[in-house]
């Protein structure tokens, strides 16, 4: 067990984008066979171990979330990004399945509405941030504003930015704004964890074909998925820039290999539960006065006539 734990720790360390370091997505891998730590394990054994670990982490996460809620000091913001079909929705469903739904909010962000365009680019995300004690999951996030918008800069034309703003420093300034926003949240008690679900182009093709071939998956297919696939290489470049400019001590990025859903879900569940547990949360202490009230209530209820 000791060995297994060390292997897991080493793999998780490899998914972390070290702040300030140049990022090449090719170094991260999208499967699991590239991890030398796993070279002596068969796929079947690994999958079985991963599923057991996922189950353990689901339970750990359920307890950690209860404590997070009771202590009511920290909030947790989980950001999920990835190319279409990378598995963001499924990850949320599987990782969070044991958690009390009252303490978790999932927000998905699509093309900004006119009301959203009427505000600064971070506004629509700010109003969905988790409150103390809660977990907020962003299925896509303000990172779209340095991803899809950077791949298709014409989107900016309808954002009504002040003249001269779209200068050579535009993206650099957006990264600065995002880092400042996250630093502010971290200072105020938000644990921020960001996951990039990293799939290969071949795996995306398989998943898109599955959507086309399976009647029950037809609803998930969108023509825009194919259109965006044409920009695969631009997205990879722009993801690299985003990762290297916005992975910080207070809001790190993890590049999660996502060609195998069970790998991605297990790693993400482990990172989230470990990080929440590390907050060192405690149930609130009961004051002497509250304890006296509890004892009085017990006596009163026990003394009720039938
Ligand atoms: P998902 O793939 O996230 O599960 P979806 O593909 O079904 O969801 P869509 O209706 O396609 O959801 O909405 C997501 C689309 O909105 C994506 O193409 C995304 O790039 C786009 N989008 C999100 N944020 C922005 C933004 N700030 N500016 C422009 N487009 C955005």
From TrEMBL:
It comes from the Archaea. Pfam families: PPK2 (PF03976). One of its GO terms (biological process) is polyphosphate metabolic process. InterPro entries: EAL_dom (IPR001633), P-loop_NTPase (IPR027417), Polyphosphate_phosphotransfera (IPR016898), PPK2-rel_1 (IPR022300), PPK2-related (IPR022488). Residues 39-67 form a coiled coil. The keyword Kinase applies. One of its GO terms (molecular function) is polyphosphate kinase activity. Residues 1-126 form the EAL domain. PANTHER family: POLYPHOSPHATE:AMP PHOSPHOTRANSFERASE (PTHR34383:SF3), POLYPHOSPHATE:AMP PHOSPHOTRANSFERASE-RELATED (PTHR34383). This is Polyphosphate kinase 2 family protein.
